[in-house]
Input
Amino acid sequence: SWLGSGDILKIPTRFTTYAASFTVSKLVASVYAGVAWDHAPAGSRRRDSILRNVPLTLALSQAVLGFGPLLTNDNSILIFGLVTSGWATGAMTTLVPILVLEWFGRDRFMRMFSTLMTGSAVVMTFCFNGVMTLDWDVNHLDDDKSWFRYTNTPWRVNVTSADWDDFETHWGGCPHHPACFRASFYVQLAMALGALAVTHRMGAATRGSGGGGTKVIERD
Output
């Protein structure tokens, strides 16, 4: 049978390496961020540094993943990008609920955290559908509006006509398009730099108020 043959379970080594690079880094960062935050005094520069390092690391990862393949074909660039991306993702996973708890307290924690998670899901859905629609209109329609054909647009960087048959030609096929990934890296790089500016201003505001910007939560 197809299950007994074991072919379905065979995964190329490079894929497991890529997955492990992201996952292990994410797990380590999720633990480190929580421990480092607990050991840093409230309103301290150390906490400011922890916050700033998350969008900074994310921006670095997106820059590496977006521009790296244009400069070299060395797989170490991809692994470095995945490691830094996993680190930022793990740290965010831990710090978001910590910040919500400290800022809004236990009584409002579930409401505010649920609002943040719902908002992130809505924004992600909007962005995904927006990118898919843009890719469909730009790359899957010819000048005569015939479907299932790619046009030669700037999105198709480093892709020749010999590669056309290797790409999905339906709505939602953008993830099969290398330039689509590159465009998403650029967008996320810009968003990460914006988040970095916000965290810098948050730290400056907290220090200016004498470290009183963090809400103290009374424990039962």
